């Protein structure tokens, strides 16, 4: 063992930490020899996870806003809403991995195109990009997604429940008042086991951002149609980037009392064209959905006082 390694091993024992931001050219592979973790009991690990999760379930059983779907629109909505620390925000994502389609650009290529002026949203998040005349290019869509996710999850008023699916809505007197949830693995197995009942989260506002039709896509507006709260889903139209992005932002709204719809789910509801791999409309639709949710909360508070 080299003299440097001996010195570092000694300092490791006294609590010195390897790594850090700086490149240390004199540190070697041998410096990791003798690396020792603090002891832990297995039951302690279990208790730490379970108490946190159960406390979150208790706390978020009554949320101000539940966001269904953690794609680019749902994430952008959550980011905007989380700026108000008084709001309790739960995000429900059926996949283990949050982010929906925004880990990649079109046809599984890496870069993400965002048309101006939605680059302001990237500036706010400090996501770097290459500037072009009418649009910007983020070198990898995952750079946007990982940045917004990490900043969002650091906010104290946000909880992400992933691997959890929304199976239905709570509706009372024509107002959406929450969601019906289950572990996604259970949701996917309702045809193999009889009666695996779900759980519920009450919410003053539900924001549905489940994307266009697909295995679980557009599930919010499909349910609204099947229970007669909306007349019909017109179905997403063929691709037209220029028309589509403006349409999606314009259509973002509280569709029925207590339920705001954002992102590509709106294309199914309102018959908007798809835009393919340009993401600006998802970011701004998410942002507008947050404003619509806040307006709904304010209106409900007034109604309660009257
Ligand atoms: O897993 C879904 C995804 O992460 C999740 N989701 C869907 N149904 C759910 C349910 N419960 C819980 N019942 C559910 N989660 O919702 C997320 C939707 O993300 P997305 O990326 O598919 O949709 P988006 O509207 O945020 O972004 C669309 C991006 C697209 S699609 C498109 C085109 O096809 O032309 N162009 C763009 C920019």
Outline the fold blueprint.
Elements: H1 3-13, H2 42-60, E1 62-68, H3 72-81, E2 89-93, E3 112-115, H4 119-125, E4 130-131, E5 135-138, H5 141-153, E6 158-162, E7 164-172, E8 175-183, H6 184-187, E9 199-208, H7 219-226, H8 241-251, E10 253-256, E11 259-261, H9 265-270, H10 280-305
Parallel strand pairs: 1-2, 1-9, 2-6, 9-11
Antiparallel strand pairs: 3-5, 4-5, 7-8, 8-9, 10-11
Helix pairs in contact: 3-5, 3-10, 8-10
Ligand AHZ is lined by residues 68-74, 92-95, 100-102, 165-166, 209-212, 216-217, 219, 263-264, 274-276, 279, 282.
Protein name: Thiamine thiazole synthase
Biased composition (Low complexity): 1-14
Region (Disordered): 1-25
How would you sum up this structure, described in words?
This protein is α/β, with parallel strands linked by helices. The chain contains ten helices and eleven strands. The chain has helices at 3-13, 42-60, 72-81, 119-125, 141-153, 184-187, 219-226, 241-251, 265-270, 280-305; strands at 62-68, 89-93, 112-115, 130-131, 135-138, 158-162, 164-172, 175-183, 199-208, 253-256, 259-261. The strands form two sheets. Strands 1, 2, 6, 7, 8, 9, 10 and 11 form an eight-stranded mixed beta sheet that branches. Ligand AHZ binds next to helix 3, strand 2 and strand 7.
């Amino acid at each position: 063992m080299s003299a440097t390694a001996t010195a570092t091993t000694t300092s490791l024992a006294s609590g010195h930490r390897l790594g850090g931001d700086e490149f240390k050219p004199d540190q070697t592979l041998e410096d990791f020899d003798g690396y020792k973790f603090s002891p832990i009991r297995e039951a302690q690990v279990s208790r730490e996870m379970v108490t946190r999760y159960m406390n979150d379930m208790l706390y978020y059983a009554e949320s101000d806003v539940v966001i269904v779907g953690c794609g680019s629109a749902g994430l952008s909505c959550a980011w905007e809403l989380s700026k108000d620390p008084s709001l309790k925000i739960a995000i429900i994502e059926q996949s283990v991995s949050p982010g929906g389609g925004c880990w990649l650009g079109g046809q599984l290529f890496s870069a993400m195109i965002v048309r101006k002026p939605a680059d302001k949203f990237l500036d706010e998040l400090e996501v770097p990009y290459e500037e072009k005349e009418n649009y910007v290019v983020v070198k990898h869509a995952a750079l946007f997604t990982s940045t917004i996710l990490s900043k969002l999850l650091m906010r104290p008023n946000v909880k992400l429940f992933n691997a959890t699916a929304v199976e239905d809505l709570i509706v009372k007197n024509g107002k959406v008042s929450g969601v019906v949830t289950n572990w996604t693995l259970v949701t996917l197995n309702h045809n193999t086991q009889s009666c695996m009942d779900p759980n519920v989260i009450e919410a003053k506002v539900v924001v549905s951002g489940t994307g266009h039709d697909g295995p679980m896509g557009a599930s919010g507006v499909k349910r609204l149609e099947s229970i007669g709260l909306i007349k019909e889903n017109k179905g997403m139209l063929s691709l037209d980037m220029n028309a589509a992005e403006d349409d999606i932002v314009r259509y973002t709204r509280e569709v029925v009392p207590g339920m705001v719809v954002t992102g590509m789910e709106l294309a199914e509801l309102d018959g908007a064209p798809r835009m393919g791999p340009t993401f600006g409309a998802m970011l701004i639709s998410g942002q507008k959905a947050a404003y619509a949710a806040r307006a709904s909360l304010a209106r409900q508070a007034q109604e309660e006082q009257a």
